[in-house]
Each structure stands twice: as structure tokens, then as C-alpha cells.
Design brief:
single chain, alpha/beta, Alpha-lytic protease prodomain-like, 4 domains, four-stranded mixed beta sheet, 12 helices
């Protein structure tokens, strides 16, 4: 069962209209500044001024790209684009980043050309004051665009704001280079131009990095945040397969939630709708949430269960055995873990200790809440790790008879015997009362294992797995 919630198109259109107005205002300002700077740079021959002018020109071009991308992105969803056209905004932001790289290359080429020709620029008082007058324009543009980009959460404005933000530093650098030329330090013009190239390149790679992450569907929201919101909704027993994608202005979320299988369709649908409502209300810019409802008897796992499962997976992945796992709460400090690690008996103490250290480091990295891990190292017979164990039903009857002195026959869910080399192993799955405490279950299984090993000397190892009875 699934249900979805879409944001109204009117809200989407209103946001894009605001973005469009900001881009038009910035475009007009950038065009004015561009004309002044490039004209002045060509007249004086100062590369730093030309570099700054081309930077402003790229700003103007990026505004035009932004306007085109916003026009496409603002279109409502249709059959060809059921998720809408929002990614055109991402494509437009990526184009701005590419244009910045081209501008950086062109200015860098001019620096090498100046070095080979050796012509020095000529700066007069009029040039200096004309560039000085463009500085307040840059400041106003940067402040307005950064505020608008944060308020509207627009990719285009984020990209253009990063782009425009470098203008302040670039213009200030140009003024420094002009002062240097006036006092006879012509080389300062080249140094400042190179600094401009670095600023533009940095902005380009930041924009391209962000847009690439959005286009490749990187997770847009921390899944733990979504999980907490889902569990806050009444009726949810378990949540898994949490996914999110999108960009800062339009996030999509989908997940699977398990509920009581006895619920009616209308009840399950109501829970689904409530989960979606909470996600959209509590996480900024989520425009759509899809919840798949599944029947389940499983409750939300505790921290103990999560840590226990992860530790066993970590041990399995390293080829280690794990038993006698105990997790204690150390108050606000976190969790204290004690366990037995099983590994090949022929390992040296140094090798075994290194494996244990690796296991502990992996566990703490995954669960920073663990403040202490104590591992007891135990050897396993070498043949325990060998493949090719074959079934040996010879003692099945004897084992079953002994088990029935402890539990009813219907509680024996699975009973298998395997032989490897000269060793006999028994694997047993029992069903016990779900109301029993862990201490009671552990004592019962330990009693069964000892009884089997005592009365059937041929057994080398007994493993008893317990599952709760479903009432």
C-alpha cells in the first residue's frame, strides 16, 4: 500500500517567479558593471581590470542561463516529466559552473601572454576611481542575492550567489593591483590576475560539485532524522528502506513502514497519510513523500538490538565467531560491550589480538555511543571453518529424545547434525515462551547444551537458537 503527497503547483510557481525577479535585478546591475570594467581595462591595458570585467560578464551570462533554466524548471509536471522539470534548474547551475571554468582558463591564458610580451599597463586617476565606484554595486548585488538564495532555496541562486560572491574579492584585488602599477610594481597586476583565476576556479568546482551530487541522487536528508519522525507517528512498528533524493529546494522521500497486520485498509492508509504529513511539515523543502505500508509483527528495534546485529555482522564479515555478547548502559556515557570472539586456533596471539583490535575499531566507528569494548579471545577447532560438512542423522533420535525432557515436541522447530572430520555438531532451533526473560532463556539453552554434551559424548559442539512463540 502506498500514498503520496504533492506540493501545490501554485506554491512552486510563486517561488520561481521570485527567483526570476532576483535574477533580472542582478542581471541589470552586472551588465552596467561589465561595460565599465571591460571598457576601462581595454583602454588602460590592465589585465586585472579586464579579468574583473570578464568575471562580471560571466555573471551577466550566468543570469541569462539562470532565467532560461528557471523558465523550464517552473513548468508543471506532465506525462513526460512526472516528477516535474525542477532538474533543469540543476542543469542551469551546472552550466554556470562550466562557464566559470572557461573564464578562468581565458584569464590564465592572458597571464601567460603578458609574461611573454612584457607590456606594462598604464593606470590613471580616472581608471582608479571608476573601478572604485563599481565596488558598492558589487556589495549590493552580493548581499541581495545571498539573502534571496537562502530565503528561496534555489539552486540557480545558490550557484549565482557563489559566483557573485567572488566579485567583492576580485574588485578589491583589482584595486590593489592598480595601486601597485601606479607605484611601479607592474608585476602585482599579474599576481592579482592569477589570484582572480584561483577564486573563479574555486567557485566553479564548488558549483559543479553540488550539482553533480544532486543529479546523481545523493541522499538529500539524514535517514536517522526521517526514522525518528516516522516512529513518532502512532501505529508504526518498524521502518526500513528509507531513501531521499533531490536538491535543496525540492526533496523527495520514500520509505517502507510496517504496521499491525490486523489493521483495516483505511487504518493503514490513515497512518501512511500521517507519516507523510509529519515528514513534509518537519523537514524543509520536502515536496513529496511516499510511504509503503507492510504488515509486520516486528516492533521498533532497540539500540541494543541494532548494536547486537551490527556486531554480529561485523564478526561474520571478518570470518570470526561471536557469542556471550553483553551490552550494558553506562548512563550518559554510552554503552559498555563485553563479548567472546572466536577465531582460528592456529593464529598467534599477536595475529589474534590484531583481529580483535580491528573488530573493536570497526564497531566503535559504526557506533560512537560505545565507550568500552572488552573481548575475550577463544580458539575454534580448525575443522570448524572447513567446508564440506556432511549431515549425520545417526544421533538425531537420541538428541530429540533428550530435548523432549526439556521442551515439548512441537517446540522443536529444527534439528540437524553435521560431521566434519572426526567432530559431530548439532544445530537446534527451539520455540520458547516470548514472555521469558533473556536470563531465563540463556539458562535454559545452556542447560540443554550441557545435557546433550553429557549424554552424547560423540557431540563436539551444540548450538541452540531460540525463537519466540507467536501467541
Amino acid at each position: 500500500m502506498s500514498h503520496s503527497h504533492l506540493s501545490p503547483d501554485s506554491k512552486n510557481e510563486k517561488d520561481y517567479s521570485a527567483v526570476r525577479r532576483v535574477l533580472i535585478s542582478v542581471l541589470i546591475a552586472n551588465l552596467l558593471v561589465t561595460i565599465v570594467k571591460i571598457s576601462l581595462g581595454i583602454f588602460t591595458g590592465a589585465l586585472a581590470i579586464v579579468a574583473d570585467g570578464f568575471h562580471s560578464l560571466v555573471d551577466s551570462s550566468s543570469n541569462l542561463i539562470g532565467l532560461a533554466a528557471i523558465k523550464l524548471a517552473g513548468r508543471p509536471a506532465d506525462d513526460k516529466h512526472p516528477y516535474g522539470y525542477r532538474r533543469y534548474e540543476t542543469v542551469g547551475a551546472m552550466a554556470i559552473g562550466a562557464m566559470l571554468l572557461v573564464a578562468a582558463y581565458e584569464i590564465g591564458s592572458s597571464i601567460f601572454e603578458r609574461l611573454s610580451v612584457g607590456v606594462n599597463p598604464q593606470i590613471d586617476n580616472l581608471s582608479f576611481w571608476l573601478v572604485m565606484l563599481t565596488l558598492p554595486v558589487n556589495i549590493v548585488v552580493v548581499i541581495l542575492e545571498i539573502r534571496a538564495s537562502k530565503k528561496l532555496n534555489s539552486e540557480i541562486l545558490f550557484a549565482d550567489a557563489k559566483h557573485t560572491q567572488t566579485d567583492l574579492f576580485v574588485t578589491a584585488s583589482v584595486l590593489v593591483s592598480m595601486v601597485g602599477v601606479r607605484i611601479g610594481w607592474a608585476w602585482l597586476d599579474l599576481v592579482v590576475a592569477a589570484f582572480v583565476v584561483l577564486l573563479i576556479g574555486k567557485a566553479a568546482f564548488e558549483i559543479l560539485g553540488d550539482t553533480t551530487r544532486w543529479l546523481t541522487d545523493r541522499a538529500a536528508v539524514d535517514p536517522d532524522m526521517i526514522e525518528e519522525i516516522v516512529y513518532s507517528a502512532p501505529g508504526v512498528r518498524f521502518v526500513h528502506r528509507i531513501r531521499s533524493r533531490g536538491n535543496p529546494g525540492a526533496i523527495f522521500v520514500d520509505l517502507h513502514a510496517k504496521v499491525d497486520p490486523g489493521m483495516s485498509t483505511s487504518q493503514a492508509h490513515a497512518i501512511s497519510s500521517e507519516i507523510e504529513r509529519r515528514i513534509i511539515e518537519q523537514i524543509d523543502n520536502v515536496v513529496e513523500a511516499i510511504v509503503h505500508i507492510e504488515p509486520s509483527k516486528k516492533e521498533r528495534p532497540t539500540h541494543w538490538e541494532k548494536i547486537s546485529t551490527d556486531l554480529r555482522k561485523t564478526a561474520d564479515g571478518m570470518g570470526l565467531g561471536l557469542h556471550n555478547l553483553h551490552i550494558h548502559t553506562g548512563g550518559e556515557a554510552g554503552f559498555i560491550v563485553e563479548l567472546h570472539l572466536e577465531m582460528k586456533g592456529e593464529l598467534s596471539l599477536g595475529e589474534a589480538h590484531a583481529l580483535a583490535d580491528q573488530f573493536e575499531e570497526t564497531a566503535v566507528k559504526r557506533w560512537p555511543q560505545i565507550v568500552s569494548i572488552t573481548t575475550h579471545l577463544e580458539p575454534l577447532p580448525a575443522d570448524f571453518f572447513q567446508s564440506g560438512e556432511i549431515p549425520d542423522p545417526k544421533y538425531i533420535g537420541d538428541i530429540r529424545e533428550l530435548l523432549m525432557t526439556h521442551v515439548a515436541e512441537e517446540q522443536i522447530l529444527k534439528l540437524q547434525c553435521y560431521r566434519s572430520a572426526e567432530h559431530l555438531h548439532a544445530a537446534i532451533t527451539l520455540c520458547l515462551d516470548s514472555k521469558l526473560s533473556l536470563t531465563q532463556v540463556h539458562a535454559e539453552t545452556e542447560n540443554i547444551e550441557n545435557d546433550l554434551l553429557k549424554h552424547i559424548p560423540e557431540l563436539s559442539r551444540v548450538i541452540v537458537h531460540v525463537e519466540p512463540e507467536i501467541n
